[in-house]
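OprO/OprP family phosphate-selective porin
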Amino acid sequence: MKLTPSTLSLALLAALAAPAAHAEIAIDVIGNSEVSFEGLVQADFYSFDTDLNDYGADTAGSDVDGDDYLNELRRAELVLKGKGPGNIEWVLGYDAKDDKFLDANVKYKFGNNANHFIQVGQFKQPGATMEELSSTKNNDFISKASITNSLGTPRRLGVQYNFGDANWAITASYFGRELTRNREHGSGYSVRGYWAPINEAGSIFHLGASYTDKDTDADFIRLRARPMADMVSLRYVDTGSSGLRASDRNSVIGAEALWVTGPFKMQAEYMTTDVKRYGNFDDFSGDGFYVSGLWNITGETWGYKGGTPVTNLPEEPGVGLWQLGLRYDAFDLNDGNVIPPTTPGGSPTVDGILGGKMDSWTVGVNWYWRSNFKFMLNYVTVNQEKYNNASGFRRVVEDNPNIIEARAQFYW
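Predicted structure tokens:
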């Protein structure tokens, strides 16, 4: 769905005029299950100061040097949730914008302990990043980190067992394909463990680690990253449409840390991926990380649930919760070398895969207004570089766009 600037403006005015609502809508008790309805609608706007490539959807091309923009509905999530009967909980979610199922599962809590349960259906895998496992409506920045979008395994059909307490847990899952047809495939397993030795109001310290191993299914995997703008289709940093053929299995190791003190939060995550290949092809390795800091200017702090930070509601709804954030993100898909030509005038050759590198800085301001509205403004500077086929692998070619990003969000 494409939104014109005037349509987006009208939608924002209508949202501002709407009365505040509760966080969810209670529907009824059906079959001893308390059923509620939740939703999340996001509209994004990007303005690009482009460099080598044109990242706008309307004028796809290359070798441009100017401005471009993109605005569109980002998410339209509709979710039914149920509590009961007994210790059973269930959820059925669908994203009408992306035309795909979200969480669709049944959970049984042992002894009514929220941190000791078994879950069957589609859910976020424990090998996803801490950022991915956190609630989407509370993202610190408009674009998630490059490792979250590129290396983590998100929702899949499977079974999961979680054992722990409020301060720690160990989670293990076995998964298959994604529920929506023609989406992600490849069976595998994932584990995550975390520990918060400090977990009290206004003071949290968390450490965690994860491991995922999965079949590449069609003996092929493609790793790539958007330039910190989620709706952009072009990825400059990319292992290529045929670069990682003859791939057998893909494993990812992750490490995470979180520190909260009063109105300040810092978190960091690192992931390294390894692709096992057969025949005469060498294995491939890539990695990435991010470090971010957030300051609640209005003084609120964060909660903690399931090994992830929880953003609290504004203490003064009329004023809202104001946040100022900064993030550094780095991603590396180079695992090879350029071999100089052996004869005069010859062409270099590549030993391995040179998918490129990317690093970026994001500065952001967030405003949570009352219980249902959120507005975000980000400025992103991106630096990308890779050996380009067009140059015959003779030199590194850079593409360094700057992006202004805005988001309006309504949730209940």
